[in-house]
Amino acid sequence: MPRPTHLSLELLRTFLCLAQNEGDAVQAAKRLHVNQPSMSKRLRFLQHAGSVLSRPWLVRDGKTWRLTPEGEKVLPAVEEIIGRYAQLSGFVNETVPLRPQVRFSCGQNSVAGFVRQAMLLFRRQHPEARVRVTTVPGTARIEGVANGSLDLATVTHDDATIFEIARRPLHIETISSDRLALVCAADTRWSATVERLAAGGVTLKDLGHFPLILPEPAAGIRKGLDQALRRHSLLGTLDVVLEIGGWNAILTYVRDGLGVGLISEASVPSNGRLIIRYLDSDWFPPIAIKLICRRSLTAGAGLDLSPTAQAFRTALRKAAHKSN
What we know:
alpha/beta; D-Maltodextrin-Binding Protein, domain 2; about 40% helix; 5-stranded mixed beta sheet; single chain; 3 domains
């Protein structure tokens, strides 16, 4: 009776090697030192949904192979698994040291804010550990935590969206909150109108008076803003002139006089000729900064974090609390 096939290290290596060789199965087979029948057998498991995969990772495209959207999502995790296995093998054979490592991702604004403070605190307590920090889009952060290529991440998506993207329950905790600020350069044709608004009482209706520079539609904060506009039947009433990623990019265009921007309170500059007004919390509550990680598959076992990752989580929570 044949043994049931599972997602083995062998299949992961095949998938990764094929991706690294631009879909050339012949070249990948040479690098893996396998014959063509063995390579074809492996590819069948990666090409079709079945006992190994619920969604295919590869699709045939002429004489080559390309990654499906599902394959693109899991590729970072596969790279991480193969890399960590190589590191473990080197440690077992006493050829490379095995260093504690944490993989974390956040937004561009956070990385220069409370995350930097968390890094400094963590490094003082764990000088031997390595922290890999990336600033990928929020959706990719959620997918990274869910597929195991990240230990921890911060996002601003609501819980239902996090679950929908992750396709599994994750541990979610709010570690900070941030108001949205309306920012306008002085001496523009909108500056007088912005100055007349209450310092902390900008309503969503007020936004309709300005050409707006907003975060890109895929951003968690933008999704929350769109939901609030939809609740008040205002979604199609705004004049959106630019949709871009990164608070600094929005500020740059605001200073150029191209419109009025919406940015987080934490990214408001301490100097500069800008008029700042905050959104009324009754119309748009402060943005929740959420820390996410996997839950352990063992009932009652808590979080799926190494001691090093758990220590970094503690540092993030402390730094975020101090920044509030």
